[in-house]
Amino acid sequence: MYRLWQSGNPLQSSMIDLSLLDLTLAAGLILIAIGLSYRQRIGLTRDLAIGAVRTVVQLVLVGYVLVYIFALDRWYLVVAALLIMLAVAAWTAGGRQDRPTRQLYGILGLAMLLGSGLTLVYVGSLVVRADPWYDPRYLIPLFGMIIGNAMNSASLAAERLAGEMDARRAEVEAYLALGASPARATEDAVRRATRASMIPMVNSLMVVGIVALPGMMTGQIIAGASPLSAVRYQIVVMFMLMAAVTVTGTLVPLWYRNTFFTPAEQLKVPETG
Amino acid sequence: MDNASPAFTLQQVEQVKAGTRALDGISLSVPQGQITVLIGPSGAGKSALLRLLNRLDDPTAGKIRYRGQRINDIPVRTLRRRVGFVFQTPVAFPGTVRDNLALAASIAEVPADKIDDRIGSSARLADIDDELLDRPADRLSGGQLQRVTIARALMTGPETLLMDEPTASLDPETAATIGQTIACLSSQRGLTVVMASHRIAEAKELAGHAVMLDKGKVVEAGPATQLFESSHPRLRAFLSRVG
User: Fold this and answer.
1) Chain A contact probe: residue of B79, B91, B101, B162 with most A CBs at under 10 A
2) How many beta-carbon pairs below 8 A join chains A and B?
3) pLDDT at A13 over 80
4) What is the residue extent of each domain of chain A?
């Protein structure tokens, strides 16, 4: 297979290094946002300030962690980092739901593990073919992109299914009363939930490069890679994200719907409060 | 099984749902091949009782038998195909009336070469005009749609139909014609019908057997002619208020 980086080294050292002074100047931009929010009483001043501090702290920490992982170059550290990313993503996706249960967290985590894990194995072993296989310089950024999108997909799918199940109680019971299985009674709701989870990524496929240049491609170009090399990576990234989003967005509603039924195929009463 | 044996028997059935006691020690026998009408004020437990018979819910305590067999021993999908349910608010499935009926047939695993015949006979029994069959189900009037849900319930070949105030949201004239359809289902097809109703005139006209419920308990039950003449004070008070 044609190696992706043959058309140019994506990490050429022609990038302008940013000094601490440069970062301080960049902070002026967030101050503009905070100032406007305060003046217009948008009610987000506090969130913006906390968000800005978290951005700096989290990114600096992650930078050091990555330096450490890259330097030690051990497969188990890379796998541990990926699992932590997955756990945080599952936690975040579950926390956004109206009725988060331990079971739902498990469903989201497992669907994201399969959706993201299979995609990463495919890309890592067949497309990028990093050497060694766990090369953190490839695996961690690729998985970061995959899991971020899988998280949004899982979150949207679960939220939409819960909404559909609330709105369609009468319809679902009409199916059940005829002797339909819960799977049959919720076919349409599940389909809509999967569709809702895929739409943002499908939209990205449609406009990528036209409406906006993706972050990774932009980063590679700034880092000195040839735009054509960056494009090849971005094509791989778009396809792998679509696969991860589709697998995750398909599995979440399929598994989550079972939690709405008793073993006797009755709709559970929604928990209130 | 002969028609003298009951369709359903309930023994000390209780149901607590969302912290509320909807049914409180119901013991009852529902005869086969007749129309049994459940009457009583709102919140009496009529809908809660009907839902137990199709196992849309399970009782918290007590036993329910259908034709002598404990309903929990009958596979739930089999029971639901044998005991159809018509809801108060009719729900249209996607597509035309014919699609709605065909969908019910596919759920009931009706052989493909018999589906058209079954659609024809169910539509006739529910008094649905042929010209309606190819109309989108979600564009029908309330009365037409309720007939579609009756025909849809008939597609699975049930022995019993449970009906939860099927005419409640209809005007009196449409309600009367649906009442006639229900009467024919029982008299011509031999269906057992258990129907909740808040229209006393309709209940008197249709019922062979009647049960009055109040606060989750049976106030009076028996042949309709006797029940509506009963001197039970709670029953008389209810009938004089709504009649």
Assistant:
1) B91
2) 61
3) no
4) 18-72, 74-273
